[in-house]
Amino acid sequence: xxxxxxxxxxxxxxxxxxxxxxxxxxxxxxxxxxxxxxxxxxxxxxxxxxxxxxxxxxxxxxxxxxxxxxxxxxxxxxxxxxxxxxxxxxxxxxxxxxxxxxxxxxxxxxxxxxxxxxxxxxxxxxxxxxxxxxxxxxxxxxxxxxxxxxxxxx
Length: 154
Hints:
With about 150 residues, this protein is α+β, with helices and mostly antiparallel strands.
């Protein structure tokens, strides 16, 4: 089995089941958003721009701790060009929390482990992030992200 595509069934199910706010309940929404965010991290790790595009809101932006702002297209182009080669781009187990605000907004917080290379330079760091998801007619979409600076090594 090709593990690069193992997250697709989970992603498709999560996106499909939450397209309508009329049928969702809070626990289903939390589970769906958690699955989508985990699938997003896996797509980034694989540099899978197609899977990322299915999750990202059209107006998505990411603000990192140094103050740099990345657009949806910036993130997709980075994946297409394989700017980063990841060994790990995963949420640390047990750190993910999904909070709902109303029926159509969810915020995921988790600690992320990033390990790999960028332009031949190795990196290995952890950081905290907050990802904001909004419910659209097509389902939950990742609309805004904020990531901390690298955490001090412990």
